Amino acid sequence: MCDSLKEIYSRNELYWGKDFQALLKSKHVAVFGLGGVGGFCAEALARSGVGKLTIVDFDEVSLSNINRQIVALNSTVGQKKTELFAKRFKDINPKIELDIIDDFYTDGEINADFVADAIDTMRSKISLLETCVKNGLPVISSMGAGNRIDPTKLYICDIKEIEDKNASFVSNIIYQLKKRGIESGITVVASREKPFVQEKLSQTEHLITKSGEEIEFTKITPSSTPFVASAAGIFMASYIIRQFKKEFENG
C-alpha cells in the first residue's frame, strides 16, 4: 500500500490492524441503489478501504434528493449519481477499482464478495435478492428507511426475524420471496419504528434499460428525513466489514 493510502487508512488500522486493512484492498462489494441508503453505504465502504466497488443506479440527482443524499446538492441536480459517486470515490482513494453500471437492475449474474441491496423498486429488489440466495452470495438488504425519523430504532437480523412483517413494503417483499421458496438466509436492516407519511403519493414510471427492455412500474414516494436512510446505509457497510473481519479472524 502506497504511503498516501497508509495515511488515509491509518485510523482504520488503529482499530483493526494493518493485515486486515490490506485484506480489504482485495475485497469487492456491489452496491445496488445509490440513494439515501446506498450512497452512504458505498461511501463508508470506500472510506473503509474496500478495493473494488460495483455501483449500480440508473437515476439522476433531483431537488427532492437534497435533504438526505450525500451527493445531492443544488450544483449536482440533473447529474448521474453513478458519475458523481465515481468521482467522489476516486477522490477518497485514487487506487480504488470501480465498475460503474448506469442502468436499472432487472436480473443477471453478479460477481462480488458481498452485495448491498438499497433498491427501492419491488421488481428489481426481489430479482436481486433471489439471485443472491440462489448463488450463495452474501447480501444485506435495506427494509424500510423511508417514512421514519428515528435511526435508533434500526436493527439487523435475518429476514425471517423481522419484528414487524405487516409494513406494506416489508410484507410485499416477504410474500414475493416466499413464492420463490425463500423465507430466510437474507440479512436485513429493518426498523422498529412505525412508518408515517402525511400524504400517500405514487406515480407510474417508464424507462428503457441499456439492453432495450422497457420497464413500467409504480413508484411510491415515501416521506424521507435526513436521519434514517443515512444511518441504515452505515449499518449495512459496518455489517459487511464486520463479516469480512470475522472471516479474516477465523482464517
Question: Could you explain the architecture of this structure?
Answer:
With 251 residues, this protein is an alpha/beta fold. The protein has a single domain, classed as Rossmann fold, CATH 3.40.50.720. It is 37% helix and 20% strand. It has 8 helices and 9 strands. The chain has a 7-stranded mixed beta sheet with strand order 3-2-1-4-5-7-6, sandwiched between helices. Helix 2 crosses helix 3 and helix 4 runs parallel beside helix 8. The mean pLDDT is 94.
What is the highest CATH level, the class? Alpha Beta
- Looking at CATH, the homologous superfamily is NAD(P)-binding Rossmann-like Domain
Distance between the termini: 22 Å
The SS-based structural class is alpha/beta
How would you state the average pLDDT, rounded?
94
- In helices, the fraction of residues equals 25-40%
Characterize this entry briefly:
The chain has 251 residues and is α/β, with parallel strands linked by helices.
What are the main properties of this structure?
251 residues; alpha/beta; globular; 8 helices; seven-stranded mixed beta sheet; 9 strands; Rossmann fold
SSE map:
Layout: H1 3-8, H2 10-16, H3 18-24, E1 28-32, H4 36-48, E2 52-56, H5 81-92, E3 97-101, E4 114-117, H6 122-134, E5 139-142, E6 154-158, H7 168-179, E7 187-191, E8 201-208, E9 214-221, H8 228-249
Parallel strand pairs: 1-2, 1-4, 2-3, 4-5, 5-7
Antiparallel strand pairs: 6-7, 8-9
